[in-house]
Amino acid sequence: MNPLDVRFDPAYPLSKLRPADYNPRRLSEESFVRLQGSLRRHGVVKPVILNADGTLVAGHQRTKGLKAIGETTTPAMILPQKVRLQDEIKFNLLHNRVETESSVVYAEPGPIGQWSWIPWQTIEVEESKNLPFQQAIGFMTAAHGPWGSVVIDDQGRIVLNAEYAAVAKAQRFDILAWTCASFDAGQLVEDLTGEYGVYDWTGLEEQAPVWNQHIVQPNRLREHSSKAKADKVRYKSEVWERLVLPWLTTSHRVVDFGAGHGDYARHLRGKGYKIHDYEPYRTLKGKYAVDIRTIVGQIRTIERELRQNGLYEVVVLDSVINATTSLDYQHWVLTTVNALCAADGQVCIGTRNLERELASRFHEVSCPGADQQHGKCP
Fold this sequence. Notes:
Layout: E1 7-13, E2 25-26, H1 29-42, E3 48-50, E4 56-58, H2 60-68, E5 73-78, H3 85-95, E6 104-106, E7 115-118, E8 124-127, H4 131-144, E9 149-153, E10 158-160, H5 162-171, E11 175-180, H6 182-192, E12 198-199, H7 211-215, H8 225-229, H9 238-244, E13 253-257, H10 263-269, E14 274-278, H11 292-309, E15 312-318, H12 327-340, E16 341-351, H13 354-361, E17 371-376
Parallel strand pairs: 3-5, 9-11, 13-14, 13-15, 15-16
Antiparallel strand pairs: 1-5, 2-12, 3-4, 6-8, 7-11, 9-10, 16-17
Helix pairs in contact: 1-2, 3-4, 4-5
């Protein structure tokens, strides 16, 4: 039985679906033909995800494929409430990352060729890997309930969405599963993974120009949700807490470049620190519109500081490189940071760790958290 409010409909009418205003994935003709072949062979073994109002959150191409082969319904997970655009994008990314899985998980299978709810007590995590991915899934299940599903073979091995099952075990909720015969599992995995188009977020430009920059802006030092009200959750930056604050003094002149909503800068200014913040995509509160007035004010403040006191002694670049969408973009950011920093100053950078990323990709143990570097300006 589904323990939360997410509702599963094994035969949701395609005619009732409301496509999202944007379509985040583009498929080539070859990929679309391959998708149709997979749907004919296996059916839909991974339900689409719908907002509470019936808007399609994840599974746009799958529903197109179903219509192309003459189907009229699709299995669907229906969320209990309408989610915001940021979470729609997260659902899309998480829902389509089966090819990155590396955990080894077993559970009690259901009848072959049917959907069933698997009790979380039967889940056994033999090897838990790709922990950052599990953490991302965990945030979404905590906020929206058990929205995902798994494919399990008749021997009990979870062959698709193993990371989701590991999260279910940790959070103690039952999982929806499609059970397949073990001799079909290999072909099913091969058909469902691999290249199925690329993500294209241009359809979001009117709602969220440069979508990734808007949505990744961190809310630091803030509390959210019922857990937050119980003082159990507080979001902090490893870059600030581990690399900057242990040695920073009120005499240092600092700029937080790509500061998101500027929580650390505001907090530290209140404690007497000399810190400016700059976020070129700062948004208006509760909106995706750029807060031009604030951004221009930040630029003028930095210009005035440079004229009066020279280059900054400390530049903080927290998670900004993760959000750049090209090598050119990355070059521009680093060039600007270099231009702001004094020759004997220091840059504190928080970004991904290449070794961990590669380890996760090749099914080796990966560790949570970001890697940081603390060194002098080039």
